[in-house]
Model the fold of this input.
Amino acid sequence: MFSGYIDGLIVILAINVIMAYSAALPLVAGQLNLGTAGFMAVGAYMAAFLSNEYGLPIGVAILVGSLASGLIALIIGIPVLRTSGIYLALATFALGQILVAVFLNLEIVGAAQGYPVYGYIEMPTIALTTIGLLILLFVLSQTRFWLYLTAIKNDPTVCDLFGIEVRNVQLAAFVLGGMLAAVAGGLQAHYLSYVEAQSFGALISIYTVLFVILGGTQTVLGPLVGAAFFTFLPEVFRSGEEWRYAIFAAFIIGFMVLRPQGMINANMMRRLKAPFGGKASA
Amino acid sequence: MLQQLINGMMLGSVYVLIAVAFTLSIGILNFLNFSIPGLFMLGGMISWVLISMGVPPLLAFGLAFLIACACALVVEKLTFSWMKGSDHEVPLVSSLGFLILFEQILLVFYGSDQQAFPKVIPNATLKLGDLVIGSAQLLGLVLSIAIVIGISRFLKKTRVGRGIRAIAEDTTTAEFLGINVNVVVPLIFLISGAVAAIGGMLFAVNYSQVSPFMGEEVGFKGISAMIIGGMGSVWGAIAGGLLIGLAEVMSIYFLGSDFVDLSVYGLLLIILMVRPQGLFGLAQVREKL
Amino acid sequence: MLLEINSLSVKYGRIPALEDFSMEIKRGEIATVLGANGAGKSTLLKAILGMEKASHGKVVWEGENVTNWSPSRRIKDGLALVPEGRRILIAQTIEENLLLGAYQRDDVDAIRHEMETIYDRFPNLCERRHMQASCLSGGEQQMLAIGRALLSKPDLLMLDEPSLGLSPLFVKQLFKLLRDLNKGGLTILLVEQNTDQALALANTGYVLERGKLIISDGAQKLANDPRLHEAYLGVAAE
Ligand SMILES: Nc1ncnc2c1ncn2[C@@H]1O[C@H](COP(=O)(O)OP(=O)(O)OP(=O)(O)O)[C@@H](O)[C@H]1O
Ligand SMILES: [Mg+2]
Done:
């Protein structure tokens, strides 16, 4: 019983962390993606379908699902990323809703009735996959690509001048984000043994962005901290059961008032890296 | 078929109000205020709570309206006015926090179930040949269009309206001209929250049900209506709201209710790609959040 | 004394932009503030209007300490600024721009009447009063910005580099306008890069260098003061 609870919590954490990075990648470049749940649905349905109907190993099925989601992100990203700001946020939002609505009407995967999944993966596999992805992301954060992302957020025009292909970098971030969300969806589908279109509602995408902003996008650690915090905080308030989400919401509001740059910001990281640096950061 | 057209317009009138609420906030302050669906819900739910406590309907509506307005001002204080100069996503997140907070507080006290909203308007219907128009629905349509026209006149013709439009174009210049931004900005939140709350009451009366989460779906469709009509355009909000209402009712009629999201958000996505400024929007609306 | 400034300082973050600045302006006078780019001239005008907070010192307006008043209150009380870069609202009509100048007033009839006077003065504006202000040329926009400030019925009109970017003909017209307005009793505080013309117009002059007042003198004397040129060259040579 108890360990079931812990297992479940770890899986939720893992899914939330992967989702956080799927929203964070474009957000680091200043693009708000409010449709991550749609890509999650693509990954979940695709992986479930492949492992159910074609007997593909679950890992392969999830990978193919992720590639498919990346392809969709690429095809749709090209026109959608022409917009920016609020338009982009709402275009991705619409996209997420549409993707989910497609599955809601797709008879071959059970439409509104949902779709049972026969393959099963355990918590440790999910945890290890997440850690693997995190390592990849941390490596990515040391590359020039990440530098470009932050540069684009700060000043796209200047980036253009310095020959950074702004559009392509943004598209890459968007596609990678779509692929990550699909992995999260595939893992979740095989853990819960069930896929249901209704469970990929717009609020999932919105909450995901919330994790990321609360964690902070100035550093690569921010989304991880945000997601972990979001997963555990409601558990901490469990004693106050029915009030816990209200407390949680009040906490978000208060937090943003006191610390709008997120929990983990660049300054703090610099201080952590150089604890005896004296005047390392001004 | 004609009947569906009418039903679509009636439903659309609720979206019109939400779209106007959003469009004021975005068009003037450049702020996507996610607490608007929450204020919509407060309008409906608090009216229901008061009426079921035995408060006369008219008084209940008045009180619910005042409470929602007060909440709108609190939102302004803790999101927008605090966050000046921060990243654009930040006020977005904290206004979302308010949406969750409002929903959860009502959830704690009244549960998540749909509650039946009592009939407060006599059940008269207008029959034109085969067409049936409910009096409450007609009232809703007329009221929402009247509100929109009123707001549009207010912005165009009055002194404060001119000040609001100056703030919309350039807040710093507005300050240079002596417009008291610290008074006008809360006023915009107030108007936008009030419109949302009225929308919630109309919805409650028209569809006879309320719940703590009634704002979410309507809110998303209202945002879509705003974009389709053109961000920042009050007339666009009418066009967008009615169009979404029609699209929804028509797709239920022809395709089934599972197709609603597909057609509504498909319409939104197409508009965003083909004509991002919307049907009535200006081409150069500033692009922040 | 109409306006009195006592050791006023303004900081952006920790960086001082104006330090320990004092001046006095009498009613009916024209004062000019000169200085190189970044000397703190705009900062001074914004602080007088209340757009920037004073970190030290005070602003006394008609004998009253207004240091903590909001800009809208000061404008209502007779201060007005034609800001740097004119700041016309191009999405609104010319008439709406003018009306915004009168935002703090509610004497509708008087506003109407004064607006007609302004249209008489600037016939170019009158012809296009219901068109969007984006159709105006730079010079016409400057006239609109001045007309807008006048509609607040100021006792002190401050102008921040109004001649910037105007053709010589327009500059001439502008200075003639300022002289006329002053003859009509208006007190003027003018910030200019156009040193010679500004000093020819003004009664007193102040020179700022990196936020500090280095000279204040009668305009005529100042025009021949070698330190004035140093103030410009000194910064340029760095
Ligand atoms: N908003 C601001 N934030 C930070 N520093 C500022 C700001 N505005 C001005 N400064 C700095 O304050 C100093 C004075 O600026 P100010 O605009 O008052 O100069 P100025 O004399 O009007 O120059 P110019 O002739 O170029 O208009 C400059 O060093 C400028 O960089
Ligand atoms: Mg200046």
